[in-house]
Amino acid sequence: MKKSLGKVLATAFLGTALLVSGCSSSQPATTTGSDALEETKELVIYSARNERFVQPLLDSFAEETGIEVKLLSAGESSVNRIMEEKNNVQADVFFSNDTGAMEYLRLEGLLQGNTSQALNIIDPMYRAEDGSWVGLSARTRVLMYNKDLISEEEIPKTLWELTDPKWAGEFMITRGGNSSMVAHIAALRAEWGDEKTKEWIEKVRGNAGAVVNGHGDVRRSVGAGEFKFGLVNNYYFHQQLSEDKDNNVGAIYPDQGADGMGAFVNAAGVALIKGAPNEANARKFIDWILEAEQQKFFAYESMEVPLNPAVEANPIAMRIDEYKVMDMPLQELGPVWVDVKKLIEEAGLDLDL
Amino acid sequence: MNKAPIEMMKEVNTKQEQARYTRAFSGFWLNLWKGNPPGTFLLLVSLLTGLAMLVPLSYVFIRGIQGGVDRWLNLLDTRIPILLYNTLSLTIVVTFFAIVIGLSLAWLVIRTDLPGRKTWQWLLALPLLIPPYVGAITYIIIFGPRGWVRDWLGAPLFNIYDFWGVVFVLTMFTYPYVYLITSAALKRYNLNYEEAARAAGLSYRHVFIKAVFPLLRPAIGAGAILVALYVLSDFGLVAMMRYTTFTAAIYYQMGNYDQVAAAILSVVLILITLLFIWAEAKTREKQRFYQSKGTPRQAPLIELGWWKGPLLAYASIIFGLAVFVPLSVLAYWASVGLTEGVIDQRFWGFAWNSFYMAGMASLICMFLALPVVYMKSRNPSIVSTVVDKLAYAGYALPGVIVALGIIFLFNQYIPFLYGTAALVITAYVIRFLPQNMQAADAALSQVSPRLDEAARISGFRPWQVIVKVILPLVTPGLLAGGALVFVSAMKELPATLLLRPPGMDTLAVRIWVDASEGFYQTAAPAALLLILLSIIPLRWMLSKY
């Protein structure tokens, strides 16, 4: 007697559970191991980029193709999330601000090679050798300064000068775990070696007037005159210039002397995830975003500089061929990307606040 | 078929043994339930609920212990001392101020002739409607390093991000817990002791200390523990104000997918939480007061005399800071947003996601709450008590810890649901089921067990008793609890941030993301919508205390 009523109610319970799961999994079960790429109607994008610069692009892609684009702005945790999900892949495309992170994922075997001809318009220095990721816009590290507080002549001309005690308390940097900071320090390490890089971190950490969470904080505070200058990506300087107030700022590209190492250029770009549930759409999307019109939007909106020199840059930005850049292919950042965080922490700069 | 005699013997033996075991087991079973075992289905649902609740707790402890001595020592050496200091100092100081403000306001509106005291009684409970992270956003808009004050005066006056800034904002949005519970206690407390103390010639100050305060002690303790648990579990406010407590640190570690460090920190946080609960119970144990129930007499109002002005100003200032100012800031930014047309299809999409996931969670909670509560009340045993206690664990478990367990559970064992709304809904159920259970418990306590017995005697099966007799009687309570779950789930931030599937941002997530980037015109309308929705179960909440 009890059994039968148990059955009835258990069925009811399971029914509810299934209803819940059925409603919640609006996407069809992920397809695996098929030879031909299946037609799906959606595209899942994990993005470490500011949503404002991504959403309009995704909207127009969705409109042109009828593919539903699902965005997860997971910030810097995207990389770890993709790694955690490697046996249960959710994302198709990764929008990154940092080629170090993308190359790291490639080395971990989590990206899918891409032989599309569309990639060829980007300089090989700014894309993966197997095409699994491609840079779209340049993010150059600059010293942005408040013109009311300091003149262009006085500002340090090389990064090493930040270690000089005379700048104690005068400038801002971000926390060590900020992805742009990590990539920059990885590049310095490739140039200088471990010892000198550690010394630089220690001294700069000691000299910095404030260590803040993100570059948005740096640009606003320097703009507001809380500090004389700060280490940022160039487009933060462009953004501050376009503010209604606190916009009397300038920027210098460091290490431009005859024997200087040049400014560090990182790139924002897109990567194709291995085992992507909607691979065909992901490939379509990458080809699409490499079209000149999209590249222009991608760089314009965020005030970065397009890596494709044929695409017009925002007039307030310096073109990428107007200054000296570190001559290191961005792929070289991948192998050191993880340990560099350890090095930063050991040198006494906190990864998180 | 011929069977060898030995085999037959064996068979007989096993059969007898089985029968013996069955008898022994049913004896044990009946004993366990004191002769009154629950129906299979009831037991099954309750046990499943208890198990689900156990997932985050057991995951955190197992993962934390597996982390190994080295990770523990490393964290104990580096992060834990600072986090411990940050978390404990904040919790204690906020709880202290919440008691001071909550108790003084409760006394003012219930026991004195404060002008408009009836209106103040509900006005002063309103901060409960404002999610604390929304409150923090509004104060950052005003006093932040680039806030309004800095625009007007050229300098922000003080640093809102320092310890006292965080204390101030947290206190403003948590004092109502103490306020509501002590108000209720003041309303129904026995006047005799107070009058005796007065008759003995004590001044009112002494009367308060010697006669009023001790009687209110349990209520103050109950309110204070709610405040402390809130501070321990809060993520949105402290993260917004850049103050790192354990909960925030766990969230950041999860962002790095360092699950071991997150689990270790979670274990410490759970221990701290238990410590607070234990300490509160302990102080209550020492003092026991009994008062004969209910005084029909209306307590005489204390005349404030010339204190009336200053005290009225005090109540107004608290109300202004905790309700008027935040709402005005939100209204301003919402109007900016409206003129910019941010209430578009996207906005309603987010609203629908919130509604869908919170609604599902509240339906499931209503379904699960009754079996657990019913079993505890009608089939008392160690099992039902454990299940009941487990189900209440969600109360003290911060959302980040719940999320940690759920990611693991789904990624490892239910991969086909990973990446769907099921994760978020499960987190809401674990977090907020206790709210529904309290409501169900209250409703069920009004239904006499005699009614169940009568129904059973007239031939109803156990499940029919629940469905046909109990359910109609407790439905209002269940619905009230469901509404409370719905609103709490709509406002939930950390678990939603960590578990939301791609493309399924909720209003709370949008408030968080947009406000972090300074887009207040899109954050404010969403925040106002959440606050409006919270009014639904407020009536019930106010009458509960």
UniProtKB/TrEMBL annotation, chain A:
GO terms for cellular component: outer membrane-bounded periplasmic space. One of its GO terms (molecular function) is metal ion binding. InterPro entries: Ferric-bd, SBP, SBP_1_CS. Residues 1-29 form the signal peptide. It comes from the Bacteria. GO terms for biological process: iron ion transport; transmembrane transport. Keywords: Ion transport, Iron, Iron transport, Metal-binding, Signal, Transport. Gene3D superfamilies: Periplasmic binding protein-like II. Belongs to the bacterial solute-binding protein 1 family. This is Extracellular solute-binding protein.
Automatic annotation (TrEMBL), chain B:
This is Iron ABC transporter permease. The lineage of its organism: Bacteria, Bacillati, Bacillota, Clostridia, Eubacteriales. Residues 84-280, 351-541 form the ABC transmembrane type-1 domain. It is a multi-pass membrane protein. One of its GO terms (biological process) is transmembrane transport. The chain crosses the membrane at residues 41-62, 82-110, 122-143, 163-186, 207-232, 260-279, 311-334, 354-374, 390-410, 416-433, 465-490, 522-542. Its main location: membrane. Keywords: Cell inner membrane, Cell membrane, Membrane, Transmembrane, Transmembrane helix, Transport. Gene3D superfamilies: MetI-like. Belongs to the binding-protein-dependent transport system permease family.
